[in-house]
């Protein structure tokens, strides 16, 4: 680092302008500014404001000098837009990236360094991906790859492999992530055996993304790459890498149940971020949130609330709306666990409102992207049509030299026919485009309706829970819990509808699993009663699914209340499957079976409780035009035969 040279130049030229300096002096001073900016992006003297200041000074000096040094400006903007730098505000960097590329394009062709152009495009592409703009990001990435596709140097090939891995992994499609991981592994092994200048930064990127990838599927691999990162850490001078390691280590320890050790790593994360004035990045929010999770798990609810509130406030300051909604959900959860249902309900409503806005914006953005892809496809089709017309025209001209009169007449007729056909095709394409757009809008509205219905049912369920907590009569409390479960069984239907690919049908096996987990939880029977759902995937229309869901809810509730009296454990088995050919001839083609290994029920035994559940089951059975039977066979076996309704 040539710090003495910088201060000497600064003293010499502090009172002069770019116009007063020679070209050599401008070049020397701008490089000194750039080196000073790079100096302040490293620990222990890291300072983002100073880095921005000196980068801006270097850019201003070069931009105001004559002749303009395009190559120096392009090199400077490569440092400015480098995401490992993180000096300028993220939105500002997005606007600076095209400026850097424009300077590169103005460099004479015989002086252009393709690696410089590649770096500028890769920086820009990654910014677009992180900002949620995959299409321009993909175009920039392909343009960058084209620059170095023929460069045989091994250090360049490793750079390309690393950036391919980063890009495909952050593109966030599962199949692309698999490709990205393979590239990252290959580049990692290459860098481990090399001594290239960018080795440490490339390995840090690879270890990070590999740790993320294996977090849920392979904890041993996660431990391995975290340990690799820890050994590399002393050689890294970027504080973002250090804070990432401390946060990820703390997060990983929480998943392993080592709360005290995790708390120390997360506290260290917060301290480092505050020491370097990095409290505006989302790691700062999530470090507080995870400490809140620890206190919540340990029963320190007041401390948990304080940390969740700090995370929420930090998120609001930088307008990360999705994070803010997530932290509001955390606050709802801790108040619910405390039994403060009033505040829990307030936060749940606040979360629902915030999340609804995010979901609508996300769906609208998805719809706009689909329209953009449709327009691109239409342009490609128009281009193909024009190419075909040109081919026909050339053939017609060639034939015209042989049979001018006849071919000319035929050509004119064919031209008129093509014009009519093109006009009809254009009108049809326009109508199809409008129809696709209308269908997409209707689907978006229908999903939003299902989402709002589900949210409203959750509010009703929360109100029932709040009311039941204030009632002392056990029988009334039991009725409230049953009503809450009925509402929840219908709410799950609407949740599956807006989350799934189909808006008119439900996959029942997954629905039964979610329903039984909720009922077991409401009766505090998770450790005592086991529910098994041995059936293949089966799809029903919405109306049939609602009726079957309510019947199953009542039968599970009855089994939990009465089937295991005097028993310490038991099993309930649920299945829904096609019936035999004999049953089909009788008008039914599906059978719902719910069997328990409890104490059983005599055929003539009267219903216990209020009998409302039995009345509801009978009513729904008649509505399905089904046949319901009870049997004692080492417990109670309930069979419902009914006819499946075709999905529209």
How would you concisely characterize the structure shown here?
The protein is α+β, with helices and mostly antiparallel strands. 71% of the residues lie in helices and 6% in strands. The protein has a domain at 505-642: 2-Layer Sandwich (Heat Shock Protein 90).
Write the topology of this structure.
Layout: H1 3-13, H2 23-39, H3 48-63, H4 70-81, H5 90-105, H6 114-130, H7 134-147, H8 154-170, H9 174-192, H10 199-214, H11 219-232, H12 239-255, H13 259-275, H14 282-298, H15 301-317, H16 321-338, H17 341-400, H18 404-468, H19 474-499, E1 505-507, H20 508-522, E2 529-533, E3 539-541, H21 542-563, E4 570-578, H22 581-585, E5 590-596, H23 612-623, E6 627-632, E7 636-642
Parallel strand pairs: 2-4
Antiparallel strand pairs: 1-3, 4-5, 5-7, 6-7
Helix pairs in contact: 1-2, 2-3, 3-4, 4-5, 4-6, 5-6, 6-7, 6-8, 8-9, 8-10, 9-10, 10-11, 12-13, 12-14, 13-14, 14-15, 14-16, 15-16, 16-17, 17-18, 18-19, 19-20, 19-21, 20-21, 21-23
Shape: globular
Q: Which CATH-level-2 architecture of the domain at 505-642?
A: 2-Layer Sandwich
Give, in spatial order, the strands making up the sheet with the most strands.
2-4-5-7-6
Question: Low-confidence runs (pLDDT<50, min 5 residues)?
Answer: 1-15, 367-377
Number of helices: 23
**What is the number of beta strands?**
7
How does this structure look, described?
It comes from Algoriphagus faecimaris. Residues 360-387 form a coiled coil. Residues 551-646 form the Histidine kinase domain. The protein has helices spanning 3-13, 23-39, 48-63, 70-81, 90-105, 114-130, 134-147, 154-170, 174-192, 199-214, 219-232, 239-255, 259-275, 282-298, 301-317, 321-338, 341-400, 404-468, 474-499, 508-522, 542-563, 581-585, 612-623, and strands at 505-507, 529-533, 539-541, 570-578, 590-596, 627-632, 636-642. The strands form 2 sheets. Strands 2-4-5-7-6 form a 5-stranded mixed sheet, with helices on one face. It has a two-stranded antiparallel sheet with strand order 1-3. The chain is built from 23 helices and 7 strands. α10 runs antiparallel to α11 and α12 packs parallel to α14. The chain is α+β, with helices and mostly antiparallel strands. Helices cover 71% and strands 6% of the residues. The longest helix is centred in the last third of the chain and has 65 residues, at 404-468. The protein has a domain at 505-642: Histidine kinase-like ATPase, C-terminal domain (Heat Shock Protein 90, 2-Layer Sandwich), CATH 3.30.565.10. The chain is globular and about 105 Å long.
């Amino acid at each position: 680092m040539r710090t003495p040279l910088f201060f000497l130049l600064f003293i010499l030229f502090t009172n002069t302008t770019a116009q007063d300096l020679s070209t050599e002096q401008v070049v020397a001073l701008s490089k000194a500014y750039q080196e000073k900016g790079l100096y302040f992006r490293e620990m222990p003297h890291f300072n983002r404001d100073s880095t921005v200041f000196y980068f801006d000074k270097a850019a201003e000096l070069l931009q105001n000098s004559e002749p303009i040094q395009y190559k120096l400006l392009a090199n400077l903007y490569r440092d400015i837009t480098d995401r490992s730098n993180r000096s300028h505000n993220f939105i500002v960097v997005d606007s600076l990236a095209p400026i850097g590329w424009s300077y590169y394009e103005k460099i004479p062709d015989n002086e252009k360094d393709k690696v410089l152009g590649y770096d500028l495009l890769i920086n820009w592409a990654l910014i677009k991906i992180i900002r949620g703009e995959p299409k321009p990001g993909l175009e920039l990435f392909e343009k960058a790859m084209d620059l170095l596709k023929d460069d045989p140097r091994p250090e360049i090939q490793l750079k390309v492999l690393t950036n391919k891995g980063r890009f495909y992994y952050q593109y966030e499609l599962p199949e692309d992530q698999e490709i990205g991981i393979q590239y990252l592994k290959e580049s990692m092994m290459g860098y481990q055996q090399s001594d290239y200048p960018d080795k440490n930064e490339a390995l840090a990127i690879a270890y990070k993304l590999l740790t993320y990838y294996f977090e849920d599927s392979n904890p041993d691999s996660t431990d391995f790459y975290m340990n690799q990162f820890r050994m590399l850490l002393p050689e890294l001078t970027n504080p973002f890498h250090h804070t990432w390691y401390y946060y990820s280590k703390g997060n990983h320890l929480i998943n392993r149940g080592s709360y005290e050790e995790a708390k120390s790593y997360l506290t260290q994360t917060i301290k480092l971020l505050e020491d370097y004035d990095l409290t505006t990045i989302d790691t700062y929010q999530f470090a507080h949130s995870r400490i809140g999770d620890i206190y919540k798990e340990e029963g320190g609810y007041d401390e948990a609330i304080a940390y969740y509130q700090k995370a929420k406030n930090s998120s609001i300051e930088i307008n990360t709306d999705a994070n803010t909604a997530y932290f509001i959900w955390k606050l709802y959860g801790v108040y619910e666990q405390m039994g403060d249902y009033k505040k829990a309900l307030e936060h749940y409503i606040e979360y629902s409102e915030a999340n609804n806005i995010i979901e609508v914006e996300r769906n609208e953005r998805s719809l706009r992207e689909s329209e953009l892809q449709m327009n691109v496809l239409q342009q490609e089709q128009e281009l193909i049509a024009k190419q075909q017309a040109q081919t026909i025209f050339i053939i017609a001209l060639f034939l015209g030299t042989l049979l001018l009169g006849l071919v000319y007449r035929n050509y004119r007729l064919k031209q008129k026919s093509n014009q009519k056909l093109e006009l009809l095709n254009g009108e049809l394409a326009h109508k199809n485009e409008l129809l696709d757009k209308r269908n997409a809008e209707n689907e978006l509205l229908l999903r939003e309706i299902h989402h709002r219905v589900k949210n409203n049912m959750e509010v009703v369920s929360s109100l029932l829970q709040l009311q039941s907590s204030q009632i002392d009569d056990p029988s009334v409390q039991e009725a409230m819990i049953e009503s809450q479960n009925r509402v929840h069984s219908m709410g799950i239907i609407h949740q599956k509808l807006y989350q799934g690919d189909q808006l008119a049908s439900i996959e029942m096996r997954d629905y039964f699993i979610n329903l039984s987990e909720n009922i077991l939880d409401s009766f505090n029977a998770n450790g005592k009663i086991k529910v098994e759902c041995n059936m293949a995937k089966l799809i029903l229309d919405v109306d049939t699914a609602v009726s079957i869901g309510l019947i199953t809810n009542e039968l599970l509730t009855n089994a939990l209340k009465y089937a295991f009296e005097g028993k310490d454990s038991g099993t309930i088995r649920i299945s829904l499957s096609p019936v035999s050919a004999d049953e089909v001839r009788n008008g039914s083609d599906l059978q719902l079976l719910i069997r328990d290994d409890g104490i059983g029920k005599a055929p003539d035994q009267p219903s216990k409780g209020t009998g409302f559940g039995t009345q509801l089951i009978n009513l729904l059975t008649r509505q399905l035009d089904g046949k319901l039977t009870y049997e004692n066979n080492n417990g109670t076996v309930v069979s419902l035969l009914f006819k499946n309704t075709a999905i529209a």
